[in-house]
Write a structure and sequence with these properties.
With 203 residues, this protein is an alpha/beta fold. Helices cover 26% and strands 25% of the residues. The radius of gyration is 16 Å and the shape is globular.
């Protein structure tokens, strides 16, 4: 079986936990350079997207990364045109939603990390490819102050918190998944299943 090669934009030292999660499941990561020869794209967490990209003024966005925004949106062009899998985590899920024409809530309460520690909360998962990973109900972690608002074209919301925040999306026809939570920081089997099943999707 060939090793799956996953592309992440940026420097390895910033995304070491994602690299470990992929390598633990038998994949390999390429940072920087061109994505040629890679099998999949991973969009990791980070600062907020520029609000003008989804048609809004900046009312509460922070930690903006405009160079990264442009690079990751171009990478989405590359990988979706090729029909190759994409996994978005936290900011990465929001990037996917914006790429497909959706919008974001710029500030929400009760979902940020507390004193540097992820919050834990329950989510409900609809019948979808992700339900076989997460089950109907599970406990996930949370460290974000923005969330999906209007869904992008072709995306389905498939997981929610009790207060209605979208926690996962799937594309209807493309192998594109997004999680608002951080499987690379979860202890136990759930985080490993996310990366393991994503690599299976790439094979």
């Amino acid at each position: 079986m060939c090793m799956v090669r996953v592309y992440i934009w940026g420097e390895a030292k910033r995304y070491a936990n994602y690299q470990r999660a992929i390598e633990r499941e038998g994949g390999a990561v390429r940072f920087g350079g061109t994505p040629e020869g890679c099998d999949a794209l991973l969009l990791p967490g980070g600062g907020d997207l520029e609000p003008w990209r989804y048609g809004q003024e900046n009312t509460a966005s922070r930690g903006l990364e405009p160079v990264r925004d442009a690079a990751e949106l171009a990478l989405l062009d590359w990988f979706t045109a090729a029909g190759q899998p994409v996994l978005g985590i936290c900011r990465g899920m929001q990037t996917i939603n914006v790429y497909f024409g959706g919008t974001l809530l710029q500030d929400i309460a009760g979902h940020t990390a507390a004193h540097g520690i992820d919050r834990l909360h329950r989510v409900r998962t609809a019948p979808s490819p992700l339900r076989s990973i997460c089950g109907e109900r599970c406990i996930v972690n949370s460290a974000h102050h923005q969330a999906v608002d209007r869904l992008g074209a072709g995306l389905d919301a498939v997981q929610w918190t009790a207060d209605g925040i979208v926690e996962a999306v799937c594309h209807q026809t493309l192998p594109v998944w997004g999680f608002q939570w951080h499987p690379e920081r979860l202890d136990g089997d759930l985080g490993r299943r996310v990366f393991g099943r994503f690599l299976d999707l790439c094979r």
